[in-house]
Amino acid sequence: MNIDTTSQAITADQAKAFMAVAGLVIDELTGSRVTAHMELGPEHHTPWGIVNGGVYCTVIEGTASIGASAAVQDQDKFAVGLTNTTHFLRPLTSGTVTVDAVALNQGRTQQLWRADITDETGRLIAHGEVRLQNVDTADAKPGTPA
Prior knowledge:
Blueprint: H1 12-22, E1 24-29, E2 33-40, H2 53-72, E3 77-88, E4 95-106, E5 110-118, E6 124-136
Antiparallel strand pairs: 1-2, 2-4, 3-6, 4-5, 5-6
Helix pairs in contact: 1-2
């Protein structure tokens, strides 16, 4: 998908498209919280039969980025991840996980978000924090790094 960030704000549907390919379903999206869920299965596995940690990193950064961008879109900005620290706490092979991402700090130029991924019983599977930079849409050119 080619998103022209110079002419319009990024819509929630555009922001969610990449995450949908990974299997993530956004349940709630605001500028301070994102909740979602996904069904994990063999398509998410490492060669050893457990969910790849990259899936959790992607989900944590994706939900934080979508929420952080929603927080600044009325200022003609979007948010890009600067750091993603993800801790893997329990291995899974399958099942539904829930993601709860919340803003910890939302400043003029940067934001800090926390995301927790839990299984069907409420056990914490992965935890992460993402620091994001608020970027002016006018400064971003399609096809070039922000």
